[in-house]
Automatic annotation (TrEMBL):
Gene3D superfamilies tied to this protein: Phosphotransferase system, mannose-type IIA component
Organism of origin: Lactobacillus ultunensis DSM 16047
GO (cellular component) term, any one: membrane
One GO BP: phosphoenolpyruvate-dependent sugar phosphotransferase system
Coiled coil stretches, renumbered: none
PROSITE patterns with a match to the protein in the record: PTS_EIIA_TYPE_4
Domain PTS EIIA type-4: 1-122
Name of the protein described by the UniProt record: PTS system fructose IIA component
UniProtKB keywords: Transferase
Single GO molecular function: transferase activity
């Protein structure tokens, strides 16, 4: 399985940079970011990136549900339902945990795990309730 992180500018590359510092480089993680070159350019770059994975299973993590990276990824998932899953709300714990099991990972289980990690890692320390 391959992991693609599709976000607005700066986030995907930042997540992978932090991942690499903490866990080491993983060649199965690819990034693509929406920049000021626009949506049309992003769609073209996304299509080119996904050509690499035509015969692979791909988990795509996006930053913002219904943002452009998510919508473009979702369109790709609809065209390739057997081999692609899209999960929104990417965060560093999600990337770190998923990256260790990419080679033998099951696509649906990985998508479910991404959701579980995202939910589990959101917390408030010492919250004072009024």
């Amino acid at each position: 399985m391959e992991l693609v992180i599709a976000t607005h500018e700066g986030l995907a590359s930042g997540l992978v940079s932090a991942h690499d510092m903490l866990a080491g480089k993983n060649d199965q993680i690819m990034t693509i970011e929406l920049t000021d070159t626009g949506i049309r350019d992003f769609r073209a770059r996304f299509a080119k990136l996904m050509e690499r994975y035509q015969n692979d299973q791909v988990l795509i993590l996006t930053d913002l549900k219904n943002g452009t990276p998510h919508l473009v990824a979702e369109e790709y998932e609809e065209a390739h339902p057997a081999s692609v899953r899209v999960v929104s709300g990417v965060n560093l714990p999600m990337v770190l945990e998923l990256s260790h099991k990419l080679i033998s990972a099951n696509l649906d289980e990985s998508a479910k795990k991404a959701l579980d990690i995202g939910r589990r890692e959101i917390d408030v320390d010492k919250m004072q309730l009024a």
